[in-house]
Structure formats: structure tokens, C-alpha cells
Amino acid sequence: MPEEDLAEIKFRLYDGSDIGPFRYSPAATIAMLKERVVTEWPKDKKIAPKSANDVKLISAGKILENSKTVGQCNMPFGELPKGVITMHAVVQLSLAKAKTEKKVDKLPKKSICSCSIL
């Protein structure tokens, strides 16, 4: 594939740091990009995805579907000649895990009343 057909993409994390940029063919799927994000995720971050299902990629305000390809996402390649496309990588842990953690974090609440009747 010619070098000019490859898209250069970097992934912006929640704290403003970046992963990449990496070069992808227009035939690369969003699922492949998510796998790369998980493997390249910095180990020193407090929030980290466990799998590609924990990552949501956002480009141009749209959440990208796993089955779509880079070419199908209607990314503005023409507007940014030789430019790097920035996608936002958001970690959204699976609901089953989040519910389990929520139950563990629930401690008995103590009621403290500070009402005064005069």
C-alpha cells in the first residue's frame, strides 16, 4: 500500500497525554485500534483498560463502532494533508465489574443529625 494512503493516528488519554502516533491502513478496524491502545496504555496511569471492550474511541464527536474500518469512519483525511488525526480514548469499565465494585464500596452509612429545635 502506498505510504500516502496510510492514516497517522494518535490517541489522547483522559489526562491529556497521548499514545502514538501510529500509521494505519484505511482497512484497519476500530477493534484493531482499540487493541493497540490497550497494549500501549501507560502502566503508571490510575485508570487503565483491562481489554479492548473497556475502551471507547471518539473521533469528531462520534463514538466509533468496532466493526467499522478507519476508511469508513469518514475521517477528514483531505482536510489535513499529512496531518495526524487525534482520537480520544475513553476508559469505560464493563457494567458487571462496575456493579461488583460498587457493592464492595458500600459501607454502612451513619446518620448524623444536626437539627436544633428551639
Automatic annotation (TrEMBL):
Pfam families referenced in this protein's UniProt entry, alphabetically: Rad60-SLD_2
Superkingdom per UniProt: Eukaryota
PROSITE patterns listed in its UniProt record: UBIQUITIN_2
Organism encoding this protein: Olea europaea subsp. europaea
PANTHER family assigned: MEMBRANE-ANCHORED UBIQUITIN-FOLD PROTEIN 4, UBIQUITIN-LIKE PROTEIN 3 HCG-1 PROTEIN
Gene3D superfamilies the record matches: Phosphatidylinositol 3-kinase Catalytic Subunit, Chain A, domain 1
Residue ranges of domain Ubiquitin-like in the record: 7-75
Membrane topology: Lipid-anchor
Keywords for this protein: Cell membrane, Lipoprotein, Membrane, Methylation, Palmitate, Prenylation
Protein name as annotated: Membrane-anchored ubiquitin-fold protein
Localisation per UniProt entry: Cell membrane
Signal peptide, first to last residue: none
GO cellular component terms, semicolon-separated: plasma membrane
Stated role: May serve as docking site to facilitate the association of other proteins to the plasma membrane.
